[in-house]
Amino acid sequence: MTDFRKSTVYQIYPKSFYDSSGDGLGDLRGITEKLDYIRDLGVDYIWMTPFFVSPQKDNGYDVEDYYRIDPRYGTMEDFEELSRQAAARGIRLMLDMVFNHTSSRHQWFQKALAGDETYKNFYIFRKGKAPGVPPTNWESKFGGSAWEYVEQFDEYYLHLFDVSQPDLNWDNPQVRREIQKIVRFWMKKGVKGFRFDVVNLISKGSFEDDLQGDGRRFYTDGPNIHRYLRELNETTFGTDAEIVTVGEMSSTTLENCYQYAGEDTGELSMVFSFHHLKVDFMGNEKWVMVPFDFQKLKDILYEWQTKMARHRAWNAVFWCNHDQPRVVSRFGNTEKYWKESAKMLGTVIHCMRGTPYIYQGEELGMTNPGFTDIRQYRDVESLNHFRILQEKGLSRENAYQILAIHSRDNSRTPMQWTAGPHAGFTAGEPWIQVTDNYRYINAQAEQEDPDSILNYYRKLVRLRKEYDVIARGEFEPLDVRNPSVLVYKRLLEGEELLVICNFYGKEISWSCGENLESFRCLLGNYQEQKIDGETAALRPYECMVLYREK
Ligand code: GLC
After folding, report:
1. Which of 66, 94, 198, 324 to mutate to test the pocket of ligand 1 (most atoms within 8 A of CB)?
2. Of the residues 10, 23, 127, 458, which has the fewest C-beta atoms closer than 10 A?
């Protein structure tokens, strides 16, 4: 059995990974063709974002049919072949289950719109407060009201995301049974991992106006959430001890995550939380331009690391996914210290307590594309907010600057395989433009370079398997208020790991009152470490992983 504490997950956004057919969209066969590359990284699981039948308004997070594969991505045979080929390389597949909402094209919603009461009760329909006034003032995560008016019923339906993503009514036991059926269907296909999309939003609380925020406090970590997760566990994946699960937890709290991902709470194996990725927001407002707050970043990471451990709960640890900008553009330095900073950021995550996730291209140090024209963008959230920002009075230039920093398309540009046309992603026209730097940031070049970010990531993945202290050790923050360095220890019986990371481009000397020469360096992003007694001289973005046995 694969131990998820020693495992690393590789996330694939199929649309942008590898196109085997030449239509400009990545596909399942494309993933199969690249399995050796993934195996060589050393990872244990591949999480693939949704490839089910979908109108693709939100790139597959709007599911029309959970039992079928979107022909754009391939066929069920392609999936089974991928599954076999992955298993032959010791890799397991993790599927993305979107159960907070369906696509409005799902037959359930179509039947609801046709007036079938059974199916209307699969969703959340409510009367408006007054003519033309929605039931509550809640905002959609993608901008605008979270309610859409349906004339034939003189009612509104709830959509926390796009209008084409109506929220399911989990309080209806029939809905929960249908969802269980879907999970069991994929379990029968041999799937050993599930990621549950925004799963802490499924249990809605009371429907009232939010006078303090956008409504999220009424539906996040809602009243029945733990009961629904335990029920899903018991009736589906909980019956197979080999299955690993991760819940995507939107705006959640630590207290809820102790439950979601506790060792014996019977809910999920681990959680994604996002507080550490809001340190360049203003409160919950993402569409702003502010420098990232390093102290806040450390405080949040430290708090989640220590408190989850204390409550015997497990984190998924990560910087990147298909919704986040590229980390090297965000917290690193893509100009002078691209390689150093990408390796340093990888080190921070991969030596932590939790299961690390690598998002495709992160292991190459892929950057934000720097789009400058709205026609380059594809994501519904970006397109909406480009308009909303200008409606709020921002200039077009300002709106572009904000998009270039925060757009989800930053991570959705094609995987950079080679220095050839379209970075070797497709023989056709890619659905979204390739980032210009593919001539030097690409898998082929990095495979050949022993000092590459790719080869460094391979070492990070291996270290977790070799050193129990990384997989299982306690977490202890050090020098918490240091304005440029992030440091922590991991401790397990007689083993000790010390991770030192300089987050900035200036040299700094760091000491902790311990003899650093008593440690052995397992990994670093400079050739030799400058250690003298209790002091380490850290160069720009330098990181080191030191180890000793007591
Ligand atoms: C999650 C997904 C995101 C999607 C949203 C709605 O946050 O990661 O891509 O748009 O849920 O399903």
Report:
1. 198
2. 127
